[in-house]
Amino acid sequence: MSRPALRRALKRAGLATQPKEPRCQGPRSRGVTPPPRVSLPGEAESGSHADLPTLFGREAPVEVEIGTGKGRFLFAEAQAHPERNYLGIEIEPDYVRIAQVKIARLGLSNLRIEWLDGREFVKLRLAPASVAAIHVYFSDPWPKMRHHKRRVFQPDFVAAAARALGEGGLFKAASDHEEYWKAITSLMDSCPALERLRPEEIAGWETGTDYEKKFLLAQKEIGKGIWRRR
Ligand SMILES: C[S@@+](CC[C@H](N)C(=O)[O-])C[C@H]1O[C@@H](n2cnc3c(N)ncnc32)[C@H](O)[C@@H]1O
Fold first, then answer.
1. Exposed end of the chain (fewer CB within 10 Å): N or C?
2. End-to-end alpha carbon distance in the chain
3. Predicted TM-score (pTM) of this structure
4. Known catalytic membership, residue 140
5. Is any ligand 1 atom within 6 A of the Cβ of residue 67?
6. CB neighbours (10 Å) of residue 177?
7. Which domains does the chain have, with CATH numbers?
8. Is the CB of 69 under 6 A from ligand 1?
9. Contacts of 150 (CB under 8 A, 6+ apart)
10. Is residue 140 within 8 Å of 177, Cβ to Cβ?
11. Cβ neighbours of 208 (radius 10 Å)
12. Among 51, 117, 140, 210, which one carries the catalytic annotation?
């Protein structure tokens, strides 16, 4: 979403634009990078595994989406499957504020969308075999080589995500960026804990996200894959 569109969305949700957090003093290169956000609301400390049943107030299979954007996918899933819990993780706080207003308006008790760094949250906070599915759709490709380290998909992220999935759990991913999709599939395919579903098993599957809708309209090629925890 462009900045003006985001400002309009904030206004529609009855939210004020927040002033930017002040930068550290001195040249940017000497500023101190804040630690990644990995704590859920109400947590006293974030060193332990995330307590997902407490977050939702009940035990139920949990699905996690990283990079929810405007949340189209999760709102549809949470309404279609009230018996499951959905945790959306988004690094852009304004998207999160808008989504949280909508969750409250719809009274969705099985959906949380939180302002966190999804890559670090999966690596540091998800307990082994604690989630039923992980979704990462149209993750920012950071095309310049020197920015690849900012990508969500890294070997340690993939290993942690595989560990967090329960047996038979699914990791679902999509990208419109050819080179990033190659890197994603190479990382995922080389993870020994995961097996990729055959193309015929996922034929006709659509993620239902905003980006997918946009790319389908533009007839842009999309890479999509589902991996299952062995
Ligand atoms: C290209 S958008 C795709 C949004 C949505 N998944 C879709 O398909 O419509 C990527 C989203 O991922 C978010 N994002 C990027 N890095 C992230 C991270 N480390 N943790 C959580 N969200 C992240 C961005 O803020 C953005 O909303």
1. C
2. 37
3. 0.93
4. yes
5. yes
6. 17
7. 51-229 (3.40.50.150)
8. yes
9. 140, 142
10. no
11. 14
12. 140
Distance from the alpha carbon of residue 37 to the mean position of ligand 1, in angstroms: 15
Query: How far is residue 81's CA from residue 31's CA, in Å, rounded to a whole number?
Result: 44
Token look-up 């804990």 returns 193
Nearest to 129 by CA among 90, 161, 174, 95: 161
Instruction: Name residue, tokens 């500023």.
Output: 31
Q: Which residue spans within the chain are E strands per DSSP?
A: 62-66, 85-90, 111-115, 131-137, 165-175, 194-196, 223-229
Quote the CA–CA distance of 24 and 32 in Å, as a whole number.
7
CA of 129 to the centre of ligand 1 (A): 24
Q: What is the gyration radius of the CA atoms in the chain, in angstroms?
A: 18
